[in-house]
Amino acid sequence: MIAIAFKSRRTRRTERVIFWLLRLATYFILACATYIFLDIGIKGSRTVFTSTPPFINLPFLTEPPQTLYVFDYDGKKMTLSDRQFREWKSAHAGVDVEATSVAYSAGGIWPCIVGTALLVIGSMALALGIGISSAIYLSEYSRNGRWIRLVRIAILNLAGVPSIVFGLFGFGLFVIFFGWNVSLIAGWFTLGLMVLPAIITASEESLRAVPQGLREGSLALGASKWQTIRKNVLPYALPGILTSSILGIARVAGETAPIMFTAAYAMKDEMPWQVAKFTDFFFQGVMALPYHIYVVSSKIPQNEYTERVQYGSAFVFLFLVMLIALTSIVLRERSRSRLSW
Amino acid sequence: MEGIADSRILIPPRTKSRRAQAVVEQGIKAFFGGNALVAVIVLALITIFLFREGFGFFGQNLSNLRLYRQAGLEYVDIIRGVASRHEALSRNLSEIRLSEVRAAQKRNAPLEEINAALAPFDRFASAFSDTADNLHGIVSDLTEQASELKEQLFARAELLAQRSQLERSGAATAAEKIVVPEIDRAAALTRLREGSANFESVSAEMTAKLYNLLAEAPPLPDPAGQKAFEQWKTRTREYLAGLPAASEKLRTWSPDAPIPWYRSISSFLFGREWVTASFWQDWYGIIPLLVGSILVSIVALFFAVPLGIASAIYVSEIASAHEKRLIKPYIEFISAIPSVVLGFFGIAVVGQAVRAASQSSLLKWISFFPISERLNIFTAGCLLGFMAVPTIFTLAEDALRNVPRGFKEASYALGANRLQTIGRVLVPASLSGIVSAVLLGLGRVIGETMVVLLCAGNRIAIPDFTQGLGAVFQPVHTMTGIIAQEMGEVVRGSTHYRALFMVGLVLFTITLAINYLAQKLVARYRMSIG
Fold first, then answer.
1. Hey, which end of chain A has fewer CB within 10 Å, N or C?
2. What pTM did the predictor assign?
3. B416: number of CA atoms within 13 Å, CB side?
4. Which residues of chain B make contact with A260, given a CB cutoff of 8 A?
5. Can you give the residue ranges of every domain in chain B?
6. Which residue from B28, B35, B338 is facing A290, i.e. has the nearest CB?
7. How many CB atoms lie within 10 A of CB B316?
8. Residue A314 is nearest to which of B344, B480, B500, comparing CB atoms?
9. What is the mean pLDDT, run by run of 10 residues, along chain A of 341 residues?
10. Looking at the complex, does the CB of residue B336 fall below 8 Å from at least one CB of chain A?
11. Domain B287-529 part of CATH 1.10.10.60
């Protein structure tokens, strides 16, 4: 009896210890994530927010990046952006100062935000168009045959292909083979094709979740196949499709590798709409936020002058992507509880 | 009593004929089918395109390797190898000296005393490095000659290619105009051989000098240093014994010996050097990149697997419903953090922290601390591990949740407690699902680009494994990183361009294999339980 009691006490203690270890591991992950969010959030908000009204650093969000000039003048440390520095020089003609320049560290990130938005819109339009249509075909029209199984395997496997391989493919096919050069349209196709497998899989899943009875009822009433799909399948599948495609947006916006040599420029003076011809719009490279972060964190040194733009862009980017992802997660949780057949 | 229904409700007016409607239906079906086809074609195109661009590499690399032999670069590299082994030995001597100085400083000996004690050793070391002067002279002369010949041969091959292209396109007159200079390769190679004629005498002289030096090598004060010195002497004797073999190699070397086609493949798959845009010879060997990718992945999985599985078990079995509702979305939320932001965080925070930790006095007992590079395998691995946690967590949690209820209930009914049920029933039952979760996590880690590009240090070299675990704190380059870094700058169609596509192809194959394996495992698991 005593032995059993002793043994059970011991097992209970091991159980408790191991459960605590598991809990510790889980909370460790959460703590790491929280630390990252806080570090970037706090240091980044010093750039993005100000202590005076309107409390948001509008120049940072609405100006293009500029070179920062740092120099000593009159016993004071001056930090001026490219444009300010030229104005200052013309105002202080004859004064010779030795200024050290730090690239990208002044101004803001407006062209990068615009470029990322353009890339996301174009590639998502492409991916959603082809992706949802393909999913409708796969789930509603195709019969399960060898060919369709092959297609499914191909799609499933391509979902795991590294994004840099898509970038390589996009560079070889669109940029060089088609001769589109580094351009918006090459980026659209590369990114669109990259999320295509994910969109097809998710859309098909939502379409299949619509009960068979709805289709059969509609067909029994004499509706044609297309009428059935349009009136009785798509409306119920659409929330699911859109939710998963928002996650696709987060992925498209967050990827850097595929656009590095298909669509992104490190620096560009004109805004995307400042083009001579309408068609030039599609064949121009753009600045993109993720690529900008890559450039400012690897090509310029880490110091007090660069920290502003580094943390600022990382913060804005993280905030945007997290907002998109959060929308998707919240929508999914809500649709899970609401839609039950 | 209801009236007769409006006839319009029962039989809708037909505006279109049945036939026209069938055509429309067919058209819609064809539209969707066409879209699916586009998707498939595009996806197939990726594979085809990678192969198309990549496979041209082997032909170009083969001619690259042939040129290496024909221009006599290989010949010069035999002598260069002898000289650089001598340099390595010389470097070892200074390492021994450094450890001597450190040992003496531990005894608190003053600097002058240390220097005085090591003076005979210093004389020995400088005498040693002087013995190779003549050898280095030969190497630098020959290097110039050989690279000149290589350039001439290369230019000639280019002109020939231009001419044959013109001839093929029918412009015979234009083709005639291209003058292809004749190059007296035999004479140039003879000059090369003449230049190295005194290699044997030089090496004999060096051998004699070195044996004399070794005979009168000074003893070292520190026993550990003395031991290292003895080992060094053995290595030097081995080196000297190997010199005749080098002369023999020089004698039998022939510029016209054929290079078999498979050398092009083996030099890529097993090549230990990745050197590009060099004045001497480009090497495209994937091993340093592959080793880098694998090491980073190992470190990442070392962190991600325990954390991911532990949190999956915790959330699916132990956590309260309230905790579950919070933790699950939060961990899934992590997977949406853009990798470039994590990479930046690695540069700005993690790298510094790792280096600071290695310099702290608490960790002094670890032999390879403090580390010099803040961006290394470990830094990148930590961040990648963090990235892989959500993947492993989500899939492992799915697998655990899908274990039929009956399993758990049966276990409780037999008197097992929760821990025993988890350890002996739930985890074994979902093991294949968990393993496939780990595999998919590995797939994600190995294909990740931005974090390794920013945080792995980008030094193309195989880490020095003699340091044991310290190898993990050295910078490397990875397959994904090299593509991202070099693709933007290569000339289209060049060997380098194609080599990068080959690296992409290897990456593609590895991830496909991992995915395939994971899917196979899941399918089997469904069968065994379902």
1. N
2. 0.85
3. 16
4. 484, 487-488
5. 16-64, 71-259, 287-529
6. B338
7. 22
8. B344
9. 63 89 94 94 86 77 82 76 80 76 81 91 91 88 81 81 90 87 91 90 89 91 89 87 82 88 82 78 88 88 82 91 86 66 51
10. yes
11. no
